[in-house]
Specification:
Rossmann fold; 14 strands; alpha/beta; 2 domains; seven-stranded parallel beta sheet; seven-stranded mixed beta sheet; 15 helices
Amino acid sequence: MKTRIEWVCENTRLLGAIAEEFRQSRPFAGKTIGTGIHLEPKTVSLLLTLQSGGARVVSTGNLNTTQQEAVEYLKASGLTVIGGATRDLNEHRGFLTAVLAEKPDLLLDNGGDLFDLFRRHRYPGLMGGTEETTSGRMRLEPLREELRMPILVINDSPIKQFAENEHAVGQSVLESYIRITNRVTNGQRVTVFGYGACGRGVAANFKNARAKVSVVDRDPLKRLQAHLDGYDTPLRKAAISSADLIITVTGASGILGAEDLPHFKHGVILANAGHFPIEIEAEAIAASESVCERSRFSDGIKTLRLRDSRRIHIIAQGHVFNLARPRPMGNSIESMDLGFALQARCLEAVALGNVGERHCVVPVPRDIDERVASAYLGLRY
């Protein structure tokens, strides 16, 4: 019987076509690509595509999202995988340090971890690479003068924004919420923190699932946009106190903390869909003196009972929950195929010297966007 990874590889058709091309062109011949990215079936397809272009790939995962089947498949395919699943930040940093110890020629980063680590522990020969996320771009933008090398930000591509962030993230967050909790969405009050592309997708999918959705964003233009899109935009305290479910998707830290405990509704569920596990301060909330009992459920839900008998539930300890157990699926195959095709083409551009220092922490070049869009349409999904 074939595995889920093989199903994914068969259905990432853009990457399949690029891999076939790379076997002939060998853009990464003699080069090492270091990666720190969620290790799950769709990233397996991406990393195998890079390998087909002649790369030696050295990879580690992200916090709390590494899937063992992906690690084993990659190792069996001849890739070097460092570490495994972990929620320990220090252990994760050790894995990243070990990736950089291999002195990669190119980096595929996811959250800015590898480039920030390189900045502090430089070695000769790094050509540049890619950054997957908005969180990583926010982290690396102030470091341009120190980095001074091509770093193409995949998340700033319009393809990534509308195909993956708006459509696929919203879909996978809704799917994951239902799968993990098995709770109803109809008539539930859902508060979404953040109204960027991901937040718009999350809000739209829960609205379509018959939830009553409110949006909180620090940016008054985003709040206006949400209002005109038909969502309630109450003040923060009111949005928290009325919610049956709160989803953070901002890229910022400390969105929900222990100071919000007095305002949470009995039975509220807290879930983070942002890249870093910093949006919900899960440990600080759980450690509060207001909490008198803590219990864990097997599907990754932690329940806190407060001294006034209210209960609060936190999914996946504040880690990105659409890649959390049980059976973590993440975004749709087709959306990730598009985003990872951008990754492959951008790394190819860096390896071939088609981008330079002026492309330090900038969006994907327009010609690459157009090439990937045309290729997708040409497949006639």
